[in-house]
Specification:
alpha/beta; 4-stranded parallel sheet
């Protein structure tokens, strides 16, 4: 990739940062979960939904699918299902520049955020494994991405736009944003659920968290697959990262990261995740 950013990428990033006002409607919520794609979103939301159901004595979600969990943590435009619950929502949104500005944040009454991310190498590998049947290109072609942002749901260009804008916001307002790494959740899911509960003032009980942890194992979730839900959510990637990111693939990835990414969100982006 040339050191100069592609014109299509610059146009897409500029358009998103100045025309996407959705974040300024978040003030009616008690908490917002923002996640990069393929970063354990279904898993984290499902565990939180189970913990909320236990704490507030309401029915558990039937499945772990997005639609099944929406009554507990839905899209910002969803109607309220359980009025007794804290008002929570999730999004993959890339925020408007006004989200950087203190007076605009105060005027919009933005709530506490949980920003859940994963190492980009793992995201790309997971996304390709999940959507290979739909992407229909080889791995190296996928890694080179689409600077205009129309061909893939998630690629290095999308990740750079997400990383850069949320990195900008986090750098200025980290006191209102809990940054969660997927790798941390894997190592200690209890600590992450407790931290999210504290961030949003959920008062999740220890019993509720225990129930969420039990429900959130891969074995338990395999029994809760929604027949009408998104396919391949529990996909198991067969090829290890050090094989996927070797030779030309690693050269492409490293070149794009150096050129596109302004923030690391706590990762060593050029090393394999630990």
């Amino acid at each position: 990739m040339p050191n100069r950013l592609p014109a299509e990428y610059r146009a897409k990033a500029l358009n998103e940062a100045w025309t996407n006002f959705s974040i300024l409607r978040h003030g009616r919520f008690d908490g917002i979960l923002v996640t990069s794609k393929n970063s354990g979103t279904h898993w984290l939301k499902y565990m939180l939904a189970v913990a909320l159901a236990e704490t507030y004595d309401i029915p558990h979600p039937t499945y772990f699918s997005e639609n099944a969990v929406r009554p507990y943590i839905g899209w910002p435009k969803d109607d309220v299902t359980y009025p007794e619950l804290p008002r929570l929502a999730f999004s993959h949104t890339i925020p408007h520049h006004l989200a950087d500005v203190g007076w605009a944040r105060s005027l919009a009454g933005l709530p506490p955020y949980v920003l859940a991310v994963r190492h980009p190498m793992s995201i790309l590998a997971s996304h390709y494994a999940k959507w290979e049947y739909d992407i229909e290109v080889d791995w190296l072609t996928y890694l080179k991405g689409d600077p205009g942002g129309s061909r893939y749901r998630c690629d290095l260009y999308w990740l750079a736009r997400f990383w850069n804008r949320w990195g900008d916001v986090y750098a200025r307002h980290r006191d209102t944003i809990l940054l969660v790494h997927y790798e941390q959740t894997q190592k200690n899911p209890r600590a992450i659920l407790e931290a999210v509960s504290c961030q949003w003032g959920l008062d999740l009980t220890p019993t509720a968290i225990n129930a969420a942890l039990a429900a959130g194992t891969k074995e338990a979730m395999a029994k809760k697959v929604d027949p009408a839900g998104e396919p391949n959510v529990l996909q198991n990637r067969k090829t290890p990262l050090d094989e996927l990111f070797s030779g030309e693939a690693m050269e492409i990835y490293s070149d794009y990261v150096r050129t596109l990414f302004r923030h690391d969100l706590g990762y060593d982006l050029l090393s394999f995740p630990s």
